[in-house]
Amino acid sequence: DAGVIQSPRHEVTEMGQEVTLRCKLISGHNSLFWYRQTMMRGLELLIYFNNNVPIDDSGMPEDRFSAKMPNASFSTLKIQPSEPRDSAVYFCASTLPNGGNTIYFGEGSWLTVV
Amino acid sequence: RKEVEQDPGPFNVPEGATVAFNCTYSNSASQSFFWYRQDCRKEPKLLMSVYSSGNEDGRFTAQLNRASQYISLLIRDSKLSDSATYLCVGFTGGGNKLTFGTGTQLKVEL
């Protein structure tokens, strides 16, 4: 079975550019999470969705960040405009319905903003 | 104060040693706890769940003390392959929310 699939795996972009990160959930999963990981702050939850509906976006750092889940299997995280402090690894993860106990992560998108 | 706190380490131990990691949590509504393992430049993966009665999986033992809001992971007879970062995780139901600690780094050396 395919796991959580993220793209791009690596991106280097210039400050001010728009960045779009993509995530495909595991088939049958209905909760999706976007995390950001840095050395300083560890793994931070940005936003999560249940059945395509955003449930908690309190971790989204500011208005430059937005996330969408247009269908049950796909999500995007957009940063516009990007800044050097956005450099981090962005993980997408999903869980089964009523299966919040086990979260499956994608391999991450490594973002560097210069 | 972070909702889940861990000693970041690193813990440098010789092969064969026993090492223990601790984690404290502040949200008393947290229902379940887990340990995840993250290898360098990889995604976190579930290592084991943590039950109030304590549970063991091979060389790994996890404990939960709800009164003290404290979780532990014990690794016996450590192997070089155990070198990784270990993340303590709390699950708050209702919102289906997992909160990760910042992780404890373990380095097992020859």
Description:
The complex is a heterodimer of chains A (114) and B (110). By secondary structure, chain A is mainly beta. Chain A has no helices and eleven strands. Chain A has strands at 5-7, 10-13, 19-24, 31-38, 42-50, 53-56, 65-71, 74-79, 88-96, 99-105, 109-113. In chain A, the strands form two sheets. In chain A, strands 2, 4, 5, 6, 9, 10 and 11 form a seven-stranded mixed beta sheet that branches. In chain A, strand 5 (42-50) and strand 6 (53-56) form a beta hairpin. Chain A starts with a strand and ends with a strand. The mean pLDDT of chain A is 91. Helices cover 0% and strands 56% of the residues of chain B. In chain B, strands 2, 4, 5, 9, 10 and 11 form a six-stranded mixed beta sheet that branches. Chain B is an all-beta fold. The N and C termini of chain B lie far apart (37 Å). Classes of the chains: A mainly beta (114), B mainly beta (110). The A-B interface holds A 31, 33, 35, 41-43, 45, 48, 50, 55-56, 91, 95, 100-103, 105-108 and B 32, 34, 42-46, 49, 87, 91, 93, 95-103.
Question: What's the β-strand tally of chain B?
Answer: 11
The structural class of chain B is mainly beta
Please report the two chains with the greatest interface, counting residues with C-beta closer than 8 angstroms to the partner's C-beta. A-B, 21 and 20 residues
User: In percent terms, what proportion of residues of chain B is strand?
Assistant: over 45%
Counting DSSP H or I runs of 4 or more residues, the number of helices of chain A is 0
Specify Rg of chain B, calculated over alpha carbons: 13 Å
H/E element sequence of chain B: EEEEEEEEEEE
Task: Write a brief caption for the model.
The complex is a heterodimer of chains A (114) and B (110). Helices cover 0% and strands 60% of the residues of chain A.
What is the fold's blueprint, element by element?
The complex is a heterodimer of chains A (114) and B (110).
Chain A: E1 5-7, E2 10-13, E3 19-24, E4 31-38, E5 42-50, E6 53-56, E7 65-71, E8 74-79, E9 88-96, E10 99-105, E11 109-113
Parallel strand pairs in A: 2-11
Antiparallel strand pairs in A: 1-3, 3-8, 4-5, 4-9, 5-6, 7-8, 9-10, 9-11
Chain B: E1 4-6, E2 11-14, E3 19-25, E4 32-38, E5 44-50, E6 55-57, E7 60-65, E8 70-75, E9 84-92, E10 97-100, E11 104-109
Parallel strand pairs in B: 2-11
Antiparallel strand pairs in B: 1-3, 3-8, 4-5, 4-9, 6-7, 7-8, 9-10, 9-11
